[in-house]
Amino acid sequence: MIDFINYLINGALVGLLYALIAMGFVVIYRASKVFNFAQGELVVFGGFIVWWMVASLGLPLWVGLPLAFVAAAIFGLLVERVFFSRLAGESVFAMVMVTIGLLILIRGLILVLFGPQVRSFPIIFPLQPVIIGDILIPRSLLVGGVITVIVGFGLSWFFNRTRAGLRMTAVAEDHQVALSMGISVKRSIAFAWVLGAVLSTLGAIIFLSGKSLNFLASDIGLAALPVALLAGFEAIAGVLLAGLIVGIIQGLVTAYLDPIVGGAIGTVFPFIIMLVILFIRPTGMFGWKTIERV
Amino acid sequence: MTILKHIKTAGLAAAFGLLAATMPAKAETTYNIASLADFTGPYADVMKDLIGARRPVIDWWNAEVGKKLGVKLGVKDYDHRYDAAQVASLWPGIKAELNPIIALGVGGPDVAALQGRLPSDKIPMVMSTAAYGFAWKPDPWIFNQRPTYSHEAASFFEWFRQKRGGAGPLKVAIISSEASPAYVDQHKGVQRYAADNPDKVEVVEVVFTEVQPTDLTTQVNRVTRKGAEVIMIMTNTAAVVATKRALQSLGKQVPIILSSHNGLAESGRAIGDLKQMEGDYEVYAMAAPTDAKTPGREFFDMLQSKYNLKAKWTVSAVQGLGQALIAMRAIEAAAKKVGPDKITGEAVREALISAPITPDDTFKILGTIKFSNDAPFPTQGMVASIATVKDGKYTEAAENVPVPTLNKW
Fold first, then answer.
1. The complex's ipTM?
2. Do B214 and A258 touch (CB under 8 A)?
3. pTM: predicted TM-score of the whole model, two decimal places
4. From B274, which residue of chain A is nearest by alpha-carbon distance?
5. What structural domains does chain A harbor?
6. Chain A within 8 Å of B353 (Cβ-Cβ)?
7. Is the pLDDT assigned to residue B371 strictly greater than 70?
């Protein structure tokens, strides 16, 4: 029973980490209708910025981390200015293709700027797990989970309750309508990329604390994909629930089915759920249903 | 009279000298070697030393061996990003451009992409890595300087069990991944070995992870509760760091056994300090790059001073040296057998199989290498080196550890 609770808690916390990365997908999609294939690379880039500030330059955490967030925000803005602002009015397909190009570009940039070496990521959260009786909770994931919940509800409030957020929601609904209402679509998209890059950096900090860093870490973007699809690409708070579902199922399958099957079925299982959900409800659990009237 | 005799002798010597100077140098036939590399993929971090060691060996061979034989070797690197699809797509161009007599490979993707094609292309390939069970087939055209990863791991298990003492089997946990067929092959081989030798090794669990694990605390806690005495990780450094962090957070000390590509130095760098790898091990069937003045180290130093070798003395550099030396010795044997102007890929393969390579041929970097038509790696007489971190220092724990015989899996 204790093992079951351990797997449940760990799965939930890993799921919340996926949810945080998935929020990056959602924020960018809401503003630009673009599925960002380079989300994992944004996580790695954010990770390298943190490594550069804290481990390479030796800045204390309280200086290095805020500076890393600022640098990530500037990078997000730069990406939007250089690539996506020029594509306003172009087809979504063209923008998606640019995100694939961006993926390759960021990988190349990382190799050129930071080299191919595996780097030791700074220990941001203490390594000692939280131990309650026989229950063992990794501290970085626990702190990360709390941060994710706060960020998730904060963003949900921002998008649904504030003027700036509602403007972005209008942009997410329809660019032409938003423009006709005097809303700057370009500014909204730029803000979404800034937010996406900052969220990715936050995800990198939680994911990589005390571990090693190279561009293989971008695989977390792929792991977070079922969460975003399960929630629906427009639902910020829904991502939290989807993350919990995917994480718990993955944790339990890894613990109980992997040893029986003799393979990594736990890694595949979230994608199976994702396909089933998409088959039943293509917009995801909380995605917006679009009704087109001809 | 005596003066005249001296003048005559001097005149003759001068005439011979002039004749020798004006005679054309011995004609050299130039052949090409394709050097496959991963500069932008998952093993890009170890490529600088591996590739850095290959080229100076070829330069040394050209200057000190090839010149006498009348053979000159050219080499060109190709980046395949450790991707089988990329290898398959690059290969026709490599063949057309270089018409190589031998290729130097990096790892699993080369084998997966080319093992079916090289026999018809008649180009042999020498690998720097250990071999794979899935490629353990007769009539090979791809040759590994080392036995399989499972063979190497088994040699460590037998050595460690003896060191531990006692009668029971050594309890082993394996952290693996399904991200690459090579990773799966490693644990399948060990599982087969354990099934065939239940008195020696017991695999308590195979834990599957992603290439960059999120957290392994729960999994590591589980395998330690099952009594694991050793944790085998031959996938990558990210898995080593995640396992090490899990052990540290649990306050447990279970030695980890690593391979060459994710060894102690690489994993130590990835975790931030070699001292954190205290008591862990690495195993491979080649010399360990310790500070000892071995023939291999002297050869390496000579390449540094005379042939512009830029690599550091690391496991990857040793891999590159061994691989290149095997290729050179095979070409050398082929040149002696068929003549310097008639070397083909087929002749080089024939030389690989028929002419054993002695430890002296590789400056004791490798043991005796005797390939056959039965397997892509030497199946008999192999020995392994085991290195560890003791008092914070990289050191050899054992050398010439016999590699046991394993059944195919």
1. 0.85
2. no
3. 0.86
4. A120
5. 2-280 (1.10.3470)
6. no
7. yes
User: In 10 A of CB B320, how many CB atoms?
Assistant: 27
Domain B29-147+291-378: give its CATH superfamily.
Answer: Response regulator (3.40.50.2300)
Please judge whether B245 and A220 are an interchain contact, meaning their C-beta atoms are less than 8 angstroms apart: no
Chain B hits for A140, Cβ within 8 Å: 215
A129 → closest Cβ in B209, B212, B217: B217
For B217, name the nearest residue in chain A, comparing CA atoms only.
A138
Chain B residue numbers touching A5 (CB-CB < 8 A): none
pLDDT of residue B9: 59
Residue of B38, B204, B218 best to disrupt the A interface, most CBs of A under 10 A: B218
List, for residues B135-150, the tens digit of each pLDDT value: 899 999 999 999 999 9
Contact A216 B177 (CB under 8 A): no
- CB-based contact, B238 to chain A, within 8 Å: yes
Tallying the residues shown for chain A, one arrives at: 294
| Cross-chain Cβ contact B212/A216 below 8 Å | yes
**Which of B207, B236, B249 minimises the CB distance to A129?**
B249
Tell me, yes or no, if the two domains B29-147+291-378 and B149-284+397-402 fold the same way.
yes
CATH code of the region B149-284+397-402: 3.40.50.2300
Higher pLDDT, B17 or B295: B295
Alpha carbons within 13 angstroms on the beta-carbon side of residue B231 total: 32
Q: Which residues, 6 or more positions from A44, have their beta carbon under 8 angstroms from its beta carbon?
A: A106, A110, A204, A213, A214, A215, A217, A218
A59 or B16, greater pLDDT: A59
Nearest CA among A220, A198, A55, A218 for reference residue A124: A55
State whether B249 and A111 contact (CB < 8 Å).
no
* Ranges of each domain in chain B: 29-147+291-378, 149-284+397-402
